[in-house]
Amino acid sequence: MGLYPSDWAKCPPHAHAYKARTDVTEEHYHLIEGISQPVNGSSTDQHTHYYRGITSFERGHFHRYYGITGPAIPRVDGTHYHEIEEVTYSAYNDSVPIPYGGVVFSPDEERPTHTHRLKGKTYEVVGNEPLGW
Fold first, then answer.
1. Which of 38, 53, 116, 126 has the most Cβ atoms closer than 10 angstroms to its Cβ?
2. How far apart, in whole angstroms, are the C-alpha atoms of residue 75 and residue 41?
3. DSSP character string of 47-113
4. What are the residue boundaries of the structural domains of the chain, listed by start?
């Protein structure tokens, strides 16, 4: 028997760090970085994670993004990773000048907007208790 019994609902939750870069749209791209929401799961049970955040601040704006990872993909060493792929929410092509930062967006306003596609994968598992804890 391994570290945990076959009932994976009893294993401690884990989360994944992730990094990605969006595609180039309107002559710029954004970086994303974060940690997925924790979930109980193994390398072989097809579990997924929610993730969300805001992109890096480029050309006077950022984008919100929300998504669900793909299912767990096993690695040879017994760990796993997840693929992420999503489209950001809209932002204006020309940023709104706001003193001290901030972003204002209204879907009802008749101004050109754009989105970005992001694609990447999770890497290290974070949030697990050490063995023997």
1. 116
2. 14
3. ---EEEEE---BTTB--EEEEE----EE-TTS-EE-EEEEEPPPEESS----TT------TTS-S-E
4. 13-126
**Alpha carbon distance 127, 133 (integer Å):** 13
Phi, psi dihedral angles at 77 (to 5 degrees): -80, 5
Residue 112, judged by CB atoms within 10 A of its CB (0-12, 13-18, 19+), counts as: exposed
Q: Report the candidate in 41, 35, 38 with the shortest Cα–Cα distance to residue 18.
A: 35
Strand, helix or coil for residue 10: helix
pLDDT digits (tens, 9 = 90+) for 25-45: 999 999 999 999 999 888 888
pLDDT tens string 65-111: 999 999 999 999 888 999 999 999 998 888 777 766 556 677 777 88
Alpha-carbon distances of 119 from 5, 17, 47, 86, 87, rounded to whole Å: 34, 14, 19, 7, 9
